[in-house]
Amino acid sequence: MKFALSTNWSNTRSDDGAAIADEAGELGFDSLELGFRTRSSQLVGFKSRLDVMPVESVHAYCPAPVGAPGGHPELYRLCSSDENERALARMLLEKTFSCAADLGAKIVVFHAGYASMDTLFGNLFTTARKLRVKRGRIVYDAFRREFDILRPSLEKKGLVLALENLPSLEGFPNVFEAEELMREFDGAPIRLWFDTGHALVCETNGWSGDSVHMAAKLAPWICGMHLNDVKGPFDDHGEPGWGNVDYAGLTFLAKRDVLRVFEPSSSVSPEDLRNSLAYIRNMWSGCESWGR
Questions:
Q1: How far is it, in rounded angstroms, from Cα 74 to Cα 70?
Q2: Cis preceding linkage at 76, omega within 30
Q3: How are the residues of the chain apportioned to helix, strand and coil, as percentages rounded to the nearest 5?
Q4: Has domain 4-290 been given CATH number 3.20.20.150?
Q5: pLDDT tens digits, residue range 116-165?
Q6: pTM of this prediction?
Q7: Which has the closest alpha carbon to 227: 239, 217, 242, 218?
Q8: What are 267-279's pLDDT values in tens digits?
Q9: Exposure of 122 by Cβ count < 10 A (0-12 exposed, 13-18 middle, 19+ buried)?
Q10: What distance in Å separates the CA atoms of residue 154 and residue 107, rounded to the nearest whole number?
Q11: Where are the domains of the chain?
């Protein structure tokens, strides 16, 4: 079973893409995901190592825009009510698509947006959930329109846009919206991306049901996973095995033909990351014949 490492773990420590790729290989990883902290200056180095450390996915927006204070997946929001912001999001997505195609990646991981909950505080939780459903429809319709614009570019470049579950009540799409989107766009270059830490944050805070059940419900459309861990109600991005994510319970998803990408915080040490990879490999060791 193969595993990739998100370059978000090391993008800020080195400007040498080749060195970042080499370190991932030394730690035991098989491939890379270019994270949203990737800088343009690192791309040449990553390309020079594609024969031994391929890039299988790219996390939008990548590379980080020149002039931005830093890379961020929500620098501009595709479903914003502001037309200029939507245009900027499309522009950066197109650049991400080109980056992915140039490096041979097939999947672009994307934070689709949020259903604004500016009146969440001060509301009873049940009222807030009703508001989330109502505002989710607005975001859903906005995303549908924007995806129709982006779809030809995805198809031309042979890419899939993978929508990641986000660690908040406002995050779009939630499990119900995700299933509806997948059924509506059946056959289109769009899938889902399951972040283990984000899912548990939502479960812990009462914003969703059981995270393993969520993964099971959406499994037919999930094309990849971010493997990271949390201990409480916050998005810690610890190494798998450090926190409370039920990785044994997610074995069924690991058996599928999905990308498995470690996405730890940059504060995780190389030794802890190496041990974490060994822990997950051992747990899922009986799954090799099922997937990549």
A1: 11
A2: no
A3: 45, 15, 40
A4: yes
A5: 776 544 456 667 778 888 889 999 999 999 999 999 999 999 999 999 99
A6: 0.94
A7: 239
A8: 999 999 999 999 9
A9: exposed
A10: 10
A11: 4-290
